[in-house]
Each structure stands twice: as structure tokens, then as C-alpha cells.
Amino acid sequence: MDAWEWIVPCPKKASTGASHVDLSACAVQGDATAHRAVAALRDRFGPQDATSAAVVEVRIRVDAGAGLPAEGYTLSAGPTGVLIIGADAAGAFYGAQTLLALAGAPCSEHSACVPESEVSDWPDLPLRGTIEGFYGPPWTHADRMDHLRFSARHKLNAYVYAPKDDPFHRERWREPYPEEDLARLGELVAEAGRQHVRFVFALSPGLSMVYADPAERAALRAKAEQVWDAGVREYALLFDDIPPELSHARDRETFGTADGASASAHAAVCRDFAEEFLLPRGASRPLTMVPTDYAGTGRTAYRDRLAAELPADVLVWWTGSDVVVDEITTEEVTAAAGSYGHRLALWDNFPVNDFDFDRVFLGPLTGRTTAPNGPLPEGAALEGITANPMVQAAASRIALTTVADYAWNLAAYDPARSHARAVRLVPGATELLPLVQACSAWPPGADQSPALTALCAAALDDGSRSGQRAGSQAELRAELTRLAELPADVPGRLATELARWVAAARDMGAAGLAALDLLAAAPETPDAPPSPAAVEKALARAEEHQANVLRRVIPPFVRQVLDRAAT
């Protein structure tokens, strides 16, 4: 695999030569429309003396007539320098990100260079982002700022602020943000703008709102106005995870008590917000909403009312056939869009772990519909994807890197290849690769490691030939040793977040090795095999950890070995 394939995820059209363009000294130039792209490159390469003959020119411009889709770009790197042309400012910025990625490839001749290249690239999905929409400890301000910069590097163009346990987002939605919190929101909005990331501010009033009360609607608008003044320009209203029936007498009098009446209330609030808040301010993007009935594909009374009464331009979030899913098909998207009567954004509950904080999900996005013939056709039902990450912000980046690859180029998405790239790009992931692999299963109910499960079964299989069984035991020993010898001193945020899973994996690997020694009855060392009591002690130590690493794989194997030793 050459440097181009390794660094840049599947451009639409790309060709590279063997020669490199030396960027050790370069001058970056661009028009005002592309100034953020210029700034991104200058931050990396620094100002150069443009009068020097050795300086390579990097030129960036925006050309709406270039015939590229929105956010698309071309990149030409050759002996005369580098030219990036964006269909718009975002496209120019993404071209700069590709140049930075290419310049990050190792080269024995130059401190910074790119292969001679011709690239034409654009995204398949208009909406590609994340939604901080989980329960549990919200991300820190530093987490969010880092996440916005991560998003830019991977061409994710949206971040939705919707942490369930921010009290001013959900429980205390009527109350204005304290000054310090509002200042931090303003910083996030500003950083998002610098990174070409849409900052979407979400409010979740459904736990207590009296939908029919004009004062309540005014309170919702007042809260939105506070963050508008801080720079927010895009909004979402969430009605998820609330009772399906209307709980206030005034709402029941206004909207009725028939099945689906709450959809009328939610549509009315959305319509009021769009007409009385967004429209007078000239907001450029329509409202997005989450319905209470947000999973599944069939028509319901709630969806029928929503389809009839929700403003046509409102985008509807949907999680798939269920809340957390292993697969989303084109047929499901089409059916769901028909049931809501609106275009959909996929709220993908991946790699979220708020339903089981003892697990982390470090594998790639799998099972999502693709468009094998290129970009989705005009009028397609799916606007895009927002992935709901884990409480662990840095650890989420492994999975989110694969989400970004998927959303940019659906047909070319390869989960295994994208995951390998993510591991290489997230600092600390390579050193912790055995743990990453042990925590890569999806969906949550799937076998935590089909490969290890098969090796455990083969190691126990008395019916196999002795040579095959010995070979399986040797493979299993190698995998368990990788876990048991995981380094506990890897620097960086990822390792800090995963420290308790590292400890659990080390002890789980040690328990498996003790059982394997007992099973083999011919240890690799001069020491005697461990006693059953020693194996039980190793298992107990492994199971003391709350962090779940291969709990459904290794302990059953150890117990079967102990049962066999007892007979």
C-alpha cells in the first residue's frame, strides 16, 4: 500500500506519480474566500520568503464554476507547485486538509513533501458529523475544542451540542446559561467556524414543556436568542426519551388525546420556532428535530400526524430500525422517510456506550447502506449521518474516523481498511492495538471476539487431531499474551481514558494463560502447571474489574478448563 492510499481515504478520482513535490519551503497564497484553507496550511508550514527561488508555491482558490459538487475540490501537485481549487470555501479547506495529510506521510528525502498528484474529490453525504447526545458525564470544553479540530482533519462538517446531562439543555431548558457557560459556547461556535464545522445547538424541552402555552414557546425562543447572541446560527429541537402521551391538561385540550396527539404538539412547537425565531433572523439553515417515535420503519399514528403538520423543510433525525442497530439498509431508509414524510438524518447510536459504561467500542462502522453508483441522487431520503460518540472523547475518535470515511465516499468504504487507518492516526492506538481489537465488536450484543471464541473452542476440542489442537492452543497463547503484556505506560489522552480497560485486559489475558497452561499440562517454562486454585484466583482477579474486556469469551473458557480439571 503506497503512502497515498494509506493517508487519504479513497478520493473519487486520484492519480499519483513516483516523484515528490518538496514542501520543505513553500509560500501559501489564496483569495479571501479561501482564507481558512490558507491559514490551515500556514499554521503547518509557517511563513516563507516568497522571493527565494527554492520556495514552492501553494495556491488556493474558490471557483464556483469549476463543475464540482458542494464541498468538492481538486488538488494538483507537480513540479510547478500545488494548486487547490474548491467548489466553495469548505471545498478549498478540505483540499488543504488533504494536502496536510499527504505531507504527513514519511519520506526519507524531505522533511515535508507530497507525491505528484491529480485529485478530484467531493463528499457523498451533505451532512457528516457527530452529536454529543449521550447520557452521562458530558465532554469537557477542552474535549469539544479538540473534537472540532479532529472533525476538520477528517472532513466532518457538523457538531451537534446536545449532552443529556447538561442541565441547561434538558432539565432546566428555560433558564439562561450562566455567563461562564455562555462564553464557552461562544468559543466553541467560533472554533467551529474556523474549522468549517456547523455548530448545531439543540434544546430538549419535552420533559416539562407545556406545548400549547405561548409563554413556554416564548421561553424557548428566549433561550435560543441567548445563544444566537453568542454566535449560534443552527438549531435543533429534541423530543426523544419522553413519555409518548401528553401529560399537561392544556396540551390535551389543545391537541387531543388520540393516538399520536403529541406529534401535533411537537409539530406546533417546531412551526412556531421556525416562523417566530428562525425566519425573522434570516437563519440560513432549517430546523432539525428528533421525534419521540424515532426508531423503526413503519407508519404510526404519531408519524402520520408529524408528516402532515411538521413544516416541510424540517429535517428529521432517525436512529434506524431500533435504537442501537447493527445494520441500516437502503430499503429501511426509504421506508422510514416515507413514514415521516420528510428527509432524514441518521442519528447513529455508534459508538455510544451510555447504556453500558463498562464497555468501550473501538471498532469500525459496519453494516451501513452505501450508494454503489456514487453520490446519492437528488432528492434522496438520507441527508447524512451524525454519530453519537462515547463518554470517552479521545477513544471515540477511532470509530469516528471510520464514520468520516464512510460519509465521504460511501461506495469505496472498507471498514477494515478504514479501521487500520484510524488506529494509525489516533495517538496511542497502535501501542494498544490488542485492546482495540478486543473491544471492536459491534453491535453490543455480538460475540466480543469471534476469532478468540473460535480459538478457545478449538483449544478445548478433544475431537480434533492433537496437532490441530496444539496449533490452536499456540495461537490462543499468542493472543492472550498480547493482552497480558499490554503496556500500562502509554502516554496521551487515549491511554488515560482507557486505563481501566488496559488493566482489565491484562488480567483477563493472564487468567486465560493460566487456564491454558492447566489445559496443556505441559508448560512452556520449567515451572509446574498452575493448580486449579491458582487458575480460579487469576479468574477472580480478572472478574473484579468493572471494565468489560472479553467477559463473554475468556471466563467461559477458563471455567470449562476448570471443570475439565475437576473430572
* Helicity level: 40-55%
Strand count = 14
Distance between the termini: 52 Å
Q: Which overall shape is indicated by the principal axes computed on the Cα atoms?
A: globular
Spatial order of the strands forming the largest sheet = 7-8-9-10-11-12-13-14
Number of helices: 19
Mean pLDDT over the residues:
92
Please describe the structure with a list of short key phrases separated by commas or semicolons:
single chain, 567 residues, alpha/beta, eight-stranded parallel β-barrel, six-stranded mixed sheet, 14 strands, 42% helix, globular
Concise structural overview:
The protein has 567 residues and is an alpha/beta fold.
Structure characterization notes:
This protein has 567 residues and is α/β, with parallel strands linked by helices. The protein has 19 helices and 14 strands. The strands form 2 sheets. It has an 8-stranded parallel beta barrel with strand order 7-8-9-10-11-12-13-14, surrounded by 4 helices. A 6-stranded mixed β-sheet has the order 1-6-4-5-3-2, covered by helices on one side. Helix 6 (214-229) packs across helix 8 and helix 15 runs antiparallel to helix 17. It is globular, with a radius of gyration of 27 Å. The two termini are 52 Å apart.
Write the layout of secondary structure elements.
Blueprint: H1 3-7, E1 13-22, E2 26-30, H2 35-45, E3 56-62, E4 73-78, E5 81-86, H3 89-103, E6 113-121, E7 127-132, H4 141-153, E8 158-161, H5 179-194, E9 198-203, H6 214-229, E10 234-238, H7 249-255, H8 261-278, E11 288-290, H9 301-309, E12 315-318, H10 330-340, E13 344-348, E14 382-387, H11 393-408, H12 415-425, H13 433-438, H14 450-460, H15 466-484, H16 493-497, H17 499-520, H18 532-543, H19 554-566
Helix pairs in contact: 2-3, 4-5, 4-11, 6-8, 7-8, 8-9, 11-12, 14-15, 14-19, 15-17, 17-18, 17-19, 18-19
